[in-house]
Amino acid sequence: MIVTGLGERGMKAVAIVGTTVLMLAAGLSAQDPLRDAKDLYASAAYEDALSSLTKLTSGGGTAPDVERQADEYRSFCLFALGRTAEAESVAESIIKKDPFAQLDAADASPRLEAMFTGVRKRLLPSLIRDRFRTAKSGLDRKDYPTAEPHLKQARLMIADAEKLGVHDEALADLGVLVDGFLDMIRLTSEQRSSTLAAAGSDATAPVAASTPAPRGAAMPPRAYSAADEGVIPPTAIDQRMPAMNPVMARIAQSSHKNGILDIVINESGDVVDAIVRQSLMPTFDALVASNARHWKYRPAMKDGTPVRYVKTIALVVP
Predict the structure, then answer these.
(1) Strands (DSSP E) along 122-270, which ranges?
(2) Who's near 208: CB < 8 A, 6+ residues apart?
(3) Closest by alpha carbon to 183, among 278, 50, 84, 266?
(4) Could you tell me where the DSSP H helices lie in 164-298?
(5) What φ, ψ does residue 47 adopt, rounded to 5°?
(6) Contacts of 147 (CB under 8 A, 6+ apart)
(7) Fold assignment, 232-318
(8) β partners of residue 300
(9) Above pLDDT 70, what percent of the chain?
């Protein structure tokens, strides 16, 4: 290209425009193979579409959105060719990367929708537990800003599991845990804001150090929970809640909050510990914790063996 009558500023402008055009062209070239693959799929040339999709992603550097669509159409092609196991494997990788991924409505047939739904239903329980464990590591460090997004994602995934009919007692317990921790984070944030406002400073409160276990102390048996896979939760035989008198009920209703009780159920189905993690009302908290020690369960089971289990119970005033 010959440019005349341009000063240094004009030459820079031409260079910028040229760079922009080159970048735009590169973006279009990345999209063309994907469009070609979609056209091949639409014309039932599934093997050719697979080949095109493989070339598109094999070199690396593919934009995430393009790679996501390429994986989706790869599963479409494999499913159409009767290679169902491979199609489901690709669907698994898509859902693991994004549990809320939605299929391209243009080419997703009811059979493909059903296949992806089946894979999502199979994966959701383990994905929810993975997300909760990630959040729990942040909670254990009192790193609430890191834990909160994972808890919120776990809550959305639990709601998705409920819609898909993949909800059991273990996930119900996990939902109580997630909601309880989210409430705790919210209350902690509100209390901290109030404290800072009252103090008129931005100083951070020191974190209390945990007391280490004495040397030589015997470690208690491992207690499983709803966050653990492969564990059948305990079943209540006797779990009678104490009654609230009218005065207690009015006070609890006016507080507009729920309580959370953790109980430890041993291998015989007996409650060996009861901890109120979120108070509903101090008087009722103590009554429930005392009552819980007399409850009886069929114990939790793992691999056919009774195990210790931490069950979370929501204390709700109707």
Answers:
(1) 223-224, 231-232, 235-238, 259-265
(2) none
(3) 278
(4) 169-199, 246-255, 282-292
(5) -65, -45
(6) 135, 136, 137, 138, 139, 181, 185
(7) 3.30.1150
(8) 307
(9) 79
Q: CA angle 47-51-53, nearest 5°?
A: 115
Which residue ranges make up each domain of the chain? 232-318
Average pLDDT for the chain: 81
- SS3 of 310, please? strand
Please tell me the predicted confidence (pLDDT) of residue 46.
95
Query: Of 221, 315, 314, 307, nearest to 265 (Cα)?
Result: 307
Bridge partners of 306, per DSSP, are 301
- DSSP output for 241-259: PPPPPHHHHHHHHHHT--E
- Contact assessment for residue 67 and residue 57, using Cβ atoms and an 8 Å cutoff: yes
Distance of alpha carbon 285 from alpha carbon 304, whole angstroms: 34
Instruction: Tell me the residue length of the chain.
Output: 318
The per-residue pLDDT for range 213-242, each reduced to its tens digit, is 455 555 667 889 888 888 999 999 999 988
For the chain, the distance separating the N- and C-terminal CA atoms, rounded to the nearest angstrom, is: 78
The two three-digit tokens of residue 107, written as one number: 């080419």
Q: Is the distance from CB of 120 to CB of 164 less than 8 angstroms?
A: yes
Coil, strand, or helix at residue 116?
helix
Choose among 39, 50, 61, 47: nearest CA to 106: 39
Q: What letter represents residue 271's amino acid?
A: V
User: Per-residue pLDDT tens for 274-296?
Assistant: 998 888 888 888 889 999 999 99
Instruction: State which H helix or E strand residue 221 sits in.
Output: none
Quote the Cα angle for 222-225-230, to 5°.
Answer: 90
